[in-house]
Specification:
Length: 326
């Protein structure tokens, strides 16, 4: 039925966003990918990245799926090719969705196995560094995290996920920092409680720094009209956000190219304890990125609608010649 309804409207539907306004991110991220790819294309060292990104998500094929709770029909991505270049904005977006989905899928099991668990969101920073010093700074931060995990104050933490984010300072320096989501017992807020000032001291000692680093720590708790599960999902989304914002990639091409060199083959996600295998780090396929937004394994009908990326219009446009029948 979904297909016949939409066939009757087909003459009025030109772009992907005409079919579903929720698909606007596809246009936005593909535009960003073009901009980043152009930076890579201008440097022989990174031409291979530019070539791969030029072919990334060029054709998208969607199938109609009816939501069981609302009966609403909407398109779900079923086929696409992703370049999987580390700093490709499209692939970075799909990865964050994939990791978030994996955590959300594990939440019922975690709640059943650890019904009294509480959650802490922790941000750890260091002084800004020159972009040419980023790799050494990140190695130092990783070693400092290992020292933090060995401290007695960290022992009650039963599981953790840690991400690395690098932003660009106004003066062109790099600002690397950690976001961490910690699973802790209820006793964390009584006999194991760590004040914010102590967190600063602990992180300074682990960094072996001669300054007091900025540390933000807060309990994950529901806001008004929000349940605990939604509060945890929000904390997960904040922890697993982009490693570098696309706006920082394109604001200074020299800075971004050096960022690419400095972070080559470095891991920006880590996990441990009871959360060690939740994200399945290192397990990423093209199919995983296709299904990153929770698309089901089956759609209502075998006919897939094709959409091509148009550089000149910077939008995904309906392409009947790219349609496919499963």
């Amino acid at each position: 039925m979904a297909k016949s309804i939409n066939d009757s409207r087909q003459n009025h539907l030109l772009y992907l966003t005409d079919y579903n306004t929720h698909d606007k991110p596809w246009d936005a991220h593909r535009c960003q990918s073009d901009d980043v790819g152009q930076i890579y294309a201008g440097v022989l060292e990174f031409e291979r990245y530019a070539q791969r990104m030029a072919e990334c998500s060029g054709v998208l094929r969607f199938g109609w799926q009816t939501a069981p709770d609302t009966g609403e029909s909407r398109l779900r991505l079923r086929e696409a090719h992703f370049c999987r270049v580390r700093h490709c904005p499209v692939c970075q977006w799909r990865r964050t969705l994939m990791w978030q989905a994996r955590f959300y899928q594990a939440m019922p099991r975690l709640a059943a196995e650890h019904p009294k668990a509480r959650w802490i969101f922790l941000t750890l920073t260091v002084k800004n560094c020159q972009i040419s010093e980023l790799r050494d700074t990140l190695k130092h931060m990783n070693a400092s995290w290992q020292r933090l995990k060995d401290r007695k104050e960290f022992k009650p933490v039963s599981g953790w996920i840690r991400s690395t984010e690098v932003t660009r300072g106004k003066d062109g320096t790099a600002h690397p920092h950690f976001h961490a989501l910690l699973m802790v017992p209820p006793s964390w807020f009584t006999r194991h409680y760590i004040k914010q000032a102590r967190w600063v001291e602990l992180w300074r000692e682990c960094l072996r720094a001669d300054y007091a680093p900025n540390v933000d720590v807060r309990a994950v708790k529901a806001k008004k009209n929000q349940d605990e599960a939604d509060a945890l999902r929000a904390a997960v989304a904040e922890t697993l956000k982009y490693s570098t914002k696309p706006a920082d990639m394109t604001s200074d091409s020299a800075w971004f190219l050096e960022l690419t060199r400095q972070t080559h083959k470095m891991r920006f996600l880590a996990s441990g304890g009871t959360l060690k295998d939740v994200l399945k780090l290192g397990d990423e396929t093209n199919e995983d990125l296709i299904l990153a937004d929770g698309a089901p394994a089956a759609v209502d009908e075998p006919h897939l609608l094709g959409f091509n990326w148009h550089d000149s219009e910077r939008r995904y446009k309906r392409a009947p010649n790219a349609d496919k029948t499963l």
